[in-house]
Design goal:
Layout (H helix, E strand, L loop, with lengths): L1 E2 L5 E3 L5 E3 L3 E4 L5 E4 L4 E2 L19 H13 L4 H14 L4 H14 L1 H8 L15
Antiparallel strand pairs: 1-4, 2-3, 3-6, 4-5
Helix pairs in contact: 1-2, 2-3
Length: about 130
Amino acid sequence: MRFLSQLDLRAYEPGEWVVLSDQRYESSYGSIFTVRRGFITDLASIPRLLRSVYDINGKSRQAAVLHDFLYCAQLTTRVEADRLFLEALESLGIGWATRWSMYLGVRSGGWIYWNKRSKGLATDDFVPAEYFG
């Protein structure tokens, strides 16, 4: 379980970032997941009250981008996407208490966005092709 590439982001809209080059993650069971260039992410959907505890732009952001992409693309089940998030947090050296509290957060609240995606109610996930010239 490891990221095979570095995360390269640029601010896009307020509260949103664009992935500038493909980000690859190899899971503990050998599958490779690729967050494609041009994907738009909010890094982490952390409730305002907890933002002093969890930094959306901190050490966990690479795992958060992977998780956002897995929810958007729905290449896995929601349970597997959340488990991959937990695993990716561990691979980045996030401490046990922090990674488990983040995992429990997505397990308890992630169903809202997952269901929007499965019903086709979410917004565009990628920047227009012209963005890269």
